[in-house]
Amino acid sequence: MSKTYSSFSYQVLSQSYSIIVFLLIAIPLSAQEESQMMFSISAVEKNTTHFISKSNLKNYDANGNLGAGLLINIEHENPEFTSSNGIIKQSKSDDGWHLLVSENERIITVYAEGFLPFQIELKANEIELESGTYWNIEVAKKTLENSGDILKKLELVGFEKSLEILPTSDTDNYDVNGVLGVGIKIIMEEIIDEISFISKNGIVKEQIKKDHYLIVVSIGERTLTIQPKGFLPYTIIFSDKEIQLESGDIWNLELK
Predict the structure, then answer these.
(1) DSSP notation for 160-226
(2) Is residue 107 a contact partner of residue 84, using CB atoms and an 8 Å limit?
(3) How many Å apart are CA 127 and CA 107, to the nearest integer?
(4) How far is CA 132 from CA 69, 81, 101, 128, 129, in A?
(5) Are 177 and 243 in contact (CB under 8 A)?
(6) Order of strands across the sheet with 205-208?
(7) How many Å separate Cα 17 from the centre of its chain?
(8) For residue 25, what are the CA distances in angstroms to 149, 164, 209?
């Protein structure tokens, strides 16, 4: 009887130990699956050695104004940059990526394989663009850990083409090329003031309404990334949802 009991106890202890070991292995793996890479700004400063040539006509924006420069040093081999007003031109050198943008540019968005989209809000980082001059921006990489309780996930639960259309009389609804954009109405359970919207071609207009967000994008847009405070970024690829963006249309997207 004693031998039978000892054998049974050993089996129970052995099984319990196996479960504990499995959990100890599974938890870190799960956490690793939830971790994502992202960028952050580590330093900014006015550049006093680089200047933009006035004699080169390619250094001027669509309105005929001399551009302003950004020298971005980023921890990634092949990032992609977009801006709200469109990038005039860009090039790479040993000291980083040279971007030429309009003097009134507000946001630069960085895309890179394996990383979350990252917005550089120029004024929020005390970057005052001036025609003919450069600013240095140091962009570092870091790992974003999702504990499940700290950052929540968004999910697209429904979408449909609205019967509403964008007002043609509102000049804010037109992109930099003068083309009427497409409205994306984001409906969520809670309206959060601190929220970011990122698109490949730049956001034409964004508004916070009483019960939704209205985002206007250009008709050639491919993606829209939504990141409310406290949530992981959620990216909608329009073609995957068979959402056809046509000038003046409005699409309703419901997320929770």
Answers:
(1) EEEEEE--TT-GGGB-TTS-B-EEEEEEESS--SSEEEEETT--SEEEE-SS-EEEEE-TT--EEEE
(2) yes
(3) 11
(4) 7, 20, 10, 12, 9
(5) no
(6) 156-165, 249-255, 182-188, 213-217, 205-208
(7) 44
(8) 20, 52, 46
Strand order of the β-sheet with 234-237 is: 195-199, 223-228, 234-237
Cα 172 from Cα 34, distance rounded (Å): 38
Q: What pLDDT band is residue 69 in, cutting at 50, 70 and 90?
A: very high
Q: What is the pLDDT of residues 14-23, one digit of tens each?
A: 454 444 444 4
Q: How far apart are the first and last CA of the chain?
A: 59
